[in-house]
Amino acid sequence: MSEVNTTLIDYIRRLTELTKSRKVQWQRANPTVYIWDVESLTKKTRTTIQEATNRVRTRTGSLYEQKTYLFQIQDLRDKANAVFVDSKERPEYQEPMQELYLQAGLSIDARTADLLGDLLNEFGS
Length: 125
Hints:
Blueprint: H1 6-20, E1 27-30, E2 33-39, E3 44-57, E4 63-75, E5 81-86, H2 94-121
Antiparallel strand pairs: 1-2, 2-3, 3-4, 4-5
Helix pairs in contact: 1-2
């Protein structure tokens, strides 16, 4: 097993906290993928968190589903991957990526509810 990068885990947890406080605005690309795009003067990046469901066979032969997560940061200008972590290959990252995925979905739901509420308020109470 490779060494755990605790700094990366700390950064993922920090991103999760920023997501909870709605400072990071995720978008739903499809039912299992959330993206966050950031553009500055020098960089244009896309951060992606994806949930994958894998079928795993136990020693007794029964099957169960296991969720894993793919975390990626890509520079959109030169298409180079700065970060790519798969919790299926690196289970030590499972918990922080699972929490980020959950919070990204919840933040999208909260923004959707806000938008719907604003639309309904246009019709009065």
